[in-house]
Each structure stands twice: as structure tokens, then as C-alpha cells.
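Case study.
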Amino acid sequence: MTDSSAAGAPAPRVGLIMGSDSDWPVMKPAAEALAEFGVPFEVGVVSAHRTPQRMLDYARGAAERGVQTIIAGAGGAAHLPGMVAAATPLPVIGVPVPLKYLDGMDSLLSIVQMPSGVPVATVSIGGGRNAGLLAIRILGASDPHLRGEMSEFQADLEAIVLEKDEKLRK
Ligand code: RP5
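After joint prediction, the assembly is written out as follows.
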């Protein structure tokens, strides 16, 4: 597990985990979004199927270590987000990673169709960046500074669209 924060910096607030290092291209935009907002996070490979004990240890220990939200990406039989959600009281955001077959529908359905009582907030197939942004919004609910940063980010998005609209009309 690598920690984005420098020595002496605050502990990770977001846990960014994935079933395999092959998921990294999809998950990297989540890390980039967190870095853009200055949110400390940790990154690691935690596999529901290949390292089940590590997964349980991670999920059960995350809150005590100060992690406030977990982003979990997986592909195919993507059980990681759901199993982590079963073993932690923290909010879990699931990222369906598209693999070679089925266009990522297998990953999406494996993550989104959770039983009542165990929620996973599922983003779109390949939606790593939105997972990072959603984690920031979750933290922002109790962090006015971060919430302000998110409002500014949204204002920037709006300005970009309006600028494009103006160009198109010329
Ligand atoms: C899943 O199996 C991982 O999340 C990954 O998307 C998929 C394939 O893993 P590798 O065989 O590339 O390691 O558990």
C-alpha cells in the first residue's frame, strides 16, 4: 500500500484500492482527481479472490486508521467493492473496470446489484475520475474548505461549457 502523503503529512483520507495492478489505467484518474484537490490518499492492490484475508484486514482496519472513504475498482467478477462494503462502515465507491469481454457489463452488474443493507455507490464503467470526485464530495459534506473547492471546480466546468457555446455561436 503506497501513501500519497509525504512524511509528516496528514494520514490518508481516501483508500484507493483495486483488484489487480492491471486496473490502474482506469483507477489512475481517481488518484489524479484526489491529488488535484490535495486530498491525501493511499493506493494498493487488494483482491477479493486472490487475497481474501488482506481484503478483510484492509476493510476492517481502514476506519480506525483514519480513512474516511474507500474507492474500490475491479473487473469481471468484480466482488471487491461489495465485499469491502460488507466489512467496513465507511462509504464505498465502486468502479467497474472494463475487461476484454462483455464491454464491462459484467463488472458493472457485479458491483451495482448489491443486496439491501450493504450499499456501494457505483460509478460508470471506467469512471475512475468521477469516483475520485465523488469521494471529494463525500468528504466535503463535513469539510467546508473542500466543499468550497468543489463549488469552484463546478463553476469552472460551467464556464468552460459557456465558452464553448459562445465559440459555436460565432
Ligand atoms: C479482477 O480481475 C481485477 O480487478 C482485474 O480487473 C481482473 C483481472 O486481473 P488480472 O488477471 O489482470 O490480474 O479481480
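Observations recorded in class. The CA atoms of residues 48 and 80 lie 5 Å apart. Residues 18-20, 22-23, 47, 49, 74-76, 97, 99 surround 5-O-phosphono-beta-D-ribofuranose (CB under 6 Å). We will return to this complex in the next lecture.
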